[in-house]
Design goal:
heterodimer, A: 556 residues, mainly alpha, Sodium/glucose cotransporter, 23 helices, 0% strand, disordered N terminus, B: 102 residues, 83% helix, cell inner membrane (chain A)
């Protein structure tokens, strides 16, 4: 095992790296590469340590249930603050000011929803993933097919968005080739997850979250220092230099031109979190409902804190970057447009800012942390995907519960390899596609398919298999079709002239529709199975409230 | 889980109180979350001028940005309060039920 890890890292870094650098004309950022190598060395050590502790399926998917609430909170924050959301929100603030703030608040409000509606009961009812919970008293096969379909679609969309965004970012940050960047991410992810399972993935997330929180704090302090620690002075400068001027401080066109769309987006952001398979999976790594609670309070504190840093970074970038023409493509007379001429696009605002206030050392640090973030988030997604394939589709649908632990573990490991290769291929295929809509669609599906089924199956006695499956699939199909027929895909990706659906966010229609469909198809379900399922609600409630009989209470 | 354990828990004198209290707590907290969040989004969408105003005569920061920060903090505060109430009221009750049953 040790030799394999060493070989992998040696192959990745020593042999392939110089060749790839030579092919692009960009200067490689030495500080960034050294810091990223340190991160890989550290996490490989952890993977080696975790591999010895990963024997059973429970170790593989839940780290044996031995992660503390605080550690899990950090790991959730690590999972949640992807490079896309950090650089994306900072970039959105850079482009349109207040509009970016709205996104961050929506993402943050996913957490009270998770806490008040699902977190504790989820922990008490499930083993490896949230499908265990929805299938607790409903019929295994259809419910797990629904959960796996929605989860794998969400994971695929998220993976593509991460891989493509990440590949491009790494080209700019490290000066290496796109395909090479995508292969490094996929390969590292496979090593972490294949050998170290949830234990290694969790620790990679924790390290990355700590690095990201400290890097963000340092960057924000340096930005505020430039304005004598007066946020308002920073905002005043931002308003002076930005083309939107005072508009920067108000909700802006994007919201006021279509309030329903803004409302719809807000719903998907807030309810989507409680349906994201890779986030929900983290709740099975702690030992009890109390620890699950602690996870949420820590996670939401870190995430909230980090978003506030992101606002400082975004507005700081507006105020400070214009002073440095070297970050822009300048015309012959040295003029530039601060929005369209930023090198690498506006998502690079935070990265350029680190160079502006902290020099190449901070730039290198932030670049390394960003790379680490991408690998960590991709690892978390792959693990959730493997759980869907091996635990839902294989163990409970194909083998109908007759598989052994060993078989399930083998399928898990094969799934990881397949997902790793698939994510590299998808990253390469989608290189030049517009993937901006994918994370939004993933949240919409999570909010419209997984979230309603999960909430109603654990808190409404009347919920039956027929209702849950039909309602969940209706939510899934409506959310997907809506996005495909709206401007984001129909016009921006397929190149049609006019969208068929008036606004791009489905949440306001698809979420209530899924709830109503589950309700309607449940109350009209008069089968004997439905009666059994309603009768089983008492046992579910006892377990969800008390945790008596729950799995994985201790680490071994 | 054995059937008799479920029966035992269901018949425990404090179980009904636990379920009722917890359900009520999560409903109250969830409603507060919705009111704050929906209030924020609806104000932003339908009364954008309120949010566009500066905080005061010498301020650049707008009402909307300041409210946004407070709303963000409120999410964490609500979660913290819920954890506090759960630890204080529901955990002792739960510990008692689990002790009596097992």
């Amino acid at each position: 095992m040790r030799t394999i890890s060493k070989l992998m890292s040696a192959a990745l870094l020593a042999v392939a790296a110089p060749a790839a650098f030579a092919e692009t004309g960009h200067g490689a950022n030495t500080e960034a590469i050294i810091m990223f190598l340190l991160f890989i060395a550290g996490t490989m050590g952890i993977t080696w340590w975790a591999a010895r502790r990963t024997q059973t399926t429970s170790d593989f998917y839940t780290a044996g249930g031995g992660i503390s609430g605080f550690q899990n909170g950090l790991a959730i924050a690590g999972d949640y603050i992807s490079a896309a959301s950090f650089l994306g929100i900072a970039g959105m603030v850079y482009v349109s000011g207040y509009y970016g703030v709205i996104y961050a608040i929506g993402f943050l409000f996913g957490w009270p929803v998770v806490m008040f509606l699902v977190a504790e009961r989820l922990r008490n009812l499930g083993r490896y993933n949230f499908a265990d919970v929805t299938a607790f008293r409903l019929e295994q096969t259809p419910v797990r097919i629904l959960a796996a379909s929605a989860s794998l679609l969400i994971i695929a969309l998220y993976l593509i968005a991460q891989m493509v965004g990440a590949g491009k970012l790494i080209v700019l940050l490290f000066g290496i080739e796109y395909k090479f960047a995508v292969v490094i991410i996929g390969a590292l992810m496979m090593v972490y997850v294949f050998f170290g399972g949830m234990t290694a993935t969790t620790w990679v997330q924790i390290i990355k979250a700590v690095l990201m929180l400290s890097g963000g704090t340092l960057l924000s302090v340096l930005v505020l220092y430039a304005f004598n620690f007066s946020p308002d002075a920073m905002l005043a400068e931002a308003v002076t230099v930005h083309p939107y001027e005072a508009e920067l401080m108000s909700p802006g066109e994007a919201v006021t031109s279509n309030p329903l769309n803004a409302l719809s987006l807000g719903l998907a952001l807030a309810f989507g979190t409680a349906g994201l398979p890779h986030i929900l999976m983290r709740f099975f790594t702690v030992s009890s409902a109390q620890e699950a609670r602690k996870s949420v309070i820590w996670a939401s504190s870190f995430i909230g804190y980090f978003y506030i840093l992101t606002f400082i970074i975004g507005f700081g970038a507006i105020a400070l970057l214009v002073r440095n023409p070297e970050f822009f493509h300048t015309g012959p007379d040295g003029s530039f447009n601060m929005l369209s001429d930023l090198i690498g696009g506006t998502n690079m605002a935070a990265v350029h800012l680190s160079n502006a206030v902290g020099g190449s050392l901070l730039l290198g640090f932030l670049a390394a942390v960003t790379f680490a973030t991408i690998v960590a988030v991709v690892a978390g997604l792959a693990l959730a995907g493997a759980a869907s394939i091996s635990h839902d589709l294989y163990a409970n649908v194909i083998a109908r519960g007759r598989s052994t632990e060993k078989q399930e573990m083998r399928i898990s490991k094969i799934s990881i390899l397949v997902l790793g290769v698939l994510s590299i291929l998808l990253g390469i295929i989608f290189e030049d596609q517009n993937v901006a809509f994918m994370v939004g669609l993933a949240f919409a599906i999570a909010a419209s398919a997984n979230f309603p089924v999960l909430v109603l199956s654990i808190s409404w006695r009347g919920c039956t298999t027929r209702g849950a499956v039909l309602g969940g699939f209706i939510g899934l199909v409506v959310a997907t079709l809506w996005v495909v027929l709206s401007k984001t895909v129909w016009v921006d990706v397929f190149g049609n002239a006019e969208p068929i659906i008036p606004f791009p966010n489905p949440g306001i229609v698809s979420i209530p529709l899924a709830f109503i469909a589950i309700w309607f198809f449940s109350i009209t379900d008069r089968t004997a199975r439905a009666d059994r399922e309603r009768a089983a609600f008492e046992a579910l409630t006892v377990r969800s409230q008390t945790g008596i009989g729950r799995s994985g209470a201790v680490a071994h | 889980m054995q059937k008799d354990v479920v029966e035992q828990v269901l018949n425990h004198p404090k179980y009904a109180a636990l379920v009722k209290g917890r359900t009520r707590a999560s409903m109250i907290f969830f409603s507060l979350t919705l009111v704050i969040y929906a209030g924020f989004i609806l104000t932003m969408a339908y009364l954008p001028d309120v949010f566009a105003r500066p905080l005061g005569p010498d301020w650049t920061m707008s009402v909307g940005l300041c409210v946004g920060l407070l709303v963000a903090c409120s999410a964490v505060i609500l979660i913290a309060l819920y954890v506090y109430f759960s630890n204080k009221w529901f955990d002792p009750l739960l510990a008692e039920i689990v002790r009596d049953v097992q």
